[in-house]
Every structure is written in C-alpha cells, then in structure tokens.
Design a protein that fits this description.
Blueprint: E1 2-6, E2 11-15, H1 19-24, E3 33-51, E4 54-68, E5 73-78, H2 82-85, H3 89-103, H4 111-120, H5 127-145, H6 149-152, E6 159-161, E7 164-166, H7 171-183, E8 189-192, H8 198-212, E9 218-221, H9 228-241, E10 247-249, H10 257-267, E11 271-273, H11 280-289, E12 294-297, H12 299-317, E13 320-323, H13 330-343, E14 346-349, E15 362-364, E16 367-369, E17 372-374, E18 384-386
Helix pairs in contact: 3-5, 4-5, 5-12, 7-8, 8-9, 9-10, 11-12
Length: about 400
C-alpha cells in the first residue's frame, strides 16, 4: 500500500495501489471540487429598472463560490428577473443549495456534464441558477489552468461595442438619460417600449430621445409587451417621427412568431428575438418561421452550455448574434463579454447593467471606455474578484 496525503481528509491516508487507486484517484485531481458556497447578493440600483412587464427595484441576485482541491476559487452569478421568466432569488438559492450537496468531489472541468445533471433535476425555469453554477465551475477550472475565459471560448476577439438602455418612464426622464448616454461616449441607445401609457407614451418618449440624441441608432425593446395592433401603431408613429430603428427587439409575445414575421415584412426593419429564444430548438423554430433575423443570447436563459448550443444553431440558420443579460453585476457581464468576444461574430452587445448599480461588490472584469468593452487584459477566468477579497 502506498501512502498518499489527501488534503480533503486532513492527514496521511493509506490508499491501495492498482485498480482501487485508479478508482479513487479522480477525487484527488487538482480541479476536484472541495467546497461550494451559495449566498444571496442584493445590489441596490441607482433607479428602478423598468421593462414592459414589470420593474426591478433591487438586483436580488445570488453568488456561487466553488473552491477546488488545489485551492483555486471560482465564482458565478445568478440574476433572476421575475418579470422576464418568473425566476426568483429564493427559488434560485434553493436550487443552488441543493446542488451544493452533491458537487463535492466532482471535477470542475466536467462543467457541462454537471450542468446537464443540474438541469435534469431542476424545474424548467432554472436558467439563472444554472448559469451561476456553470460560470463558477468554468471560472475555477480556467483559473486553475491559467487561462482566461475569452481564450477558453475560442479567442476570436477581445472587444465589443455595447449599447446603453433607457428604461420605461417619462419623456423627460428619457431625454435626460439619452443625454447622459451620449455624454458617456456610448453610440447606440436601447430604449424600452410597451410600458404604461401605451403607444402615445412610447412615441412621446421616442420623440424626446430623438431630440436629445439625434444621431444615436436606436434598438427598441418591447420585452414581449406589445400586441399586433399596438406594434403596427407604434411602427407607424416612429415612421412619422423619422425614426428607423436599428433593431425591433421582441415587441410581440414570444409565441407569436407569425406576428413577428409580419411585423418585419410590414416595417422592413430588422427583428431580434429575445424571449422567443432560450434553446437551440427555439432558434430553429424562429428561423423556419422567418420570425427574426437576429437572436439575443443571454447566459441567464439556459446557462453557458445552452448558450453555446444557441450560438451554434443560429450560425447554422444564418441568424445574427446579439449578447445581452438581465440586471447583472460586472461578474456576470464580464462572463458574457468573454463568451461573445471569444466566440466572435456578435454584431450587437447589450452589456450595460453594471452602470445601473449603485454599488459594485467586485473588482476587475471587463473594462469599459465609452461604448468599447475590452477583455484583453483578463488573464484568468472572468477576471472578477470580490472587492474585499473575503468571499
């Protein structure tokens, strides 16, 4: 019998050689999971974040911390948005706490396999929790290997151009936000439509944005809050104002693919699918129906592995790529930036939500100058660490 020091057991252990040793050796691999911690992460916002179907007053997120046998630590963030798909912080924390009970001893390099098991044992709306778990595992494994996530995803590039969002509100608030966005050096404005007040209120807000930032391309995001009649009325009003949007993002219900196709034909404008697409199967359905020309990929929808499948399907179907997110800190946003830049081919980026947070509990991550996001300086994982280095 050969002695082997097993740090998980706290002393000198005698482990049999041969077949029994080979069976037990994987548990001693440097990327074996030693410990998993799950905690709520509440981050105040500078102002409520409103979309057509609800308002978020607080980023009620969750943090997953994974420690490996070699001492490496990886972190992942869950950002559930109840108005988006019904996920809540409480439900997310419960799912992640359950997973922590069976993760010890597993290899973080098998993040896809672990993610598959997690998905199979969870309810359908588990994307934010899955994203946090897979991100933490990926971050830990890539840090252990000394590799950045943007290189892990292919190293195709290191830069993206992000837009910045104007949430639902008054025309005055929209004008003020548009001026601030331009003042930051951000070129593309993404404005939410479909909120309280109907089409007239949306057109008043768009007119205010046009006056405040006349040269800014507009992405108009309805978050599935408009009906067909309202969408046609809004499109006609935009034409009257002389506005030709860069994208119409998910104005109609996620299941109204025929309506999306008809809206594109009616306006001649590019349609982006968001709520309609969470999986690769959704991509193929959207493409077959001619419902959209661009898909908005969010890691929070179906995890990192699911997002990779969506990218593959979108490329096969000839659809354009957009990277987005929920209301996330720089941790999740940096992961998405590494994902999109590393894979390459993303024509649109909406990775601005750290700018809406009143506090930043982290250090590091992507750099932002004007609208230019860069991940080139990230050497390991997603490059984000807790601000106090205590978590």
């Amino acid at each position: 019998m050969d002695p082997l020091l097993d740090p998980r057991l706290g002393g000198l252990q005698f482990i049999p050689c041969g077949e029994d040793f080979n069976r037990m050796a994987p548990a001693l691999h440097p990327t074996s999971i030693r410990r998993v911690r799950v905690a709520p992460m509440d981050i105040p916002l500078l102002a409520p974040f409103g979309i057509s179907r609800g308002t978020l007053a607080l980023a009620a997120n969750a943090l997953v911390t994974v420690e490996l046998a070699d001492g490496t630590v990886g972190r992942g963030e869950a950002a559930p948005f109840p108005a988006f798909n019904g996920e809540t912080q409480a439900g997310t924390l419960d799912l992640l706490a359950r997973a922590a009970n069976w993760l010890e001893g597993r290899d973080a390099e098998d993040w896809k396999g672990i993610g598959t098991e997690f998905r199979a044992s969870s309810p359908p709306a588990c994307g934010a929790a899955l994203c946090a778990l897979e991100t933490a595992l990926l971050d830990a494994a890539s840090r252990s290997r000394g590799v950045s996530l943007w290189r892990h995803f292919g190293g195709a590039g290191t830069e993206l151009e992000t837009d910045m969002t104007i949430t639902t509100g008054t025309p005055g608030e929209a004008a003020q936000a548009a001026k601030a966005i331009v003042g930051r050096g951000i070129r593309i404005i993404k404005a939410k439509v479909g909120g309280a007040g109907g089409v007239a209120a949306d057109l008043a807000r768009m007119a205010a944005i046009l006056e405040a930032a006349p040269g800014s391309p507009l992405i108009l995001d309805g978050n599935a809050g408009l009906g067909r009649e309202g969408a046609s009325e809004l499109a006609a009003g935009l034409r009257t104002l002389g506005i030709r949007p860069l994208l119409l993002e998910q104005w109609l219900s996620k299941d109204d693919l025929d309506g999306m196709r008809a809206l594109g034909a009616e306006t001649g404008w590019t349609i982006a699918a968001d709520e309609s697409v969470a999986t690769a199967a959704d991509v193929r359905k959207v493409a077959r129906r001619g419902a959209a020309q661009v898909v908005n990929i969010k890691l929070m929808k179906d995890g990192v592995s699911g997002a990779l499948d969506v990218v593959g399907a979108a490329r096969e179907e000839g659809l354009g790529l957009m990277i987005g997110g929920n209301v996330e800190s720089v941790l999740a946003m940096s992961t998405s930036a590494c994902f999109a830049a590393g894979l390459g081919g993303f024509g649109y980026a909406d990775l601005d939500t750290p700018l809406f947070l009143a506090e930043n509990p982290f250090q590091g991550g992507y750099s932002l100058e004007g609208s230019r996001i860069s991940v080139a300086h990230i050497m390991q994982g997603h490059g984000v660490l807790p601000a106090d280095l205590l978590l």
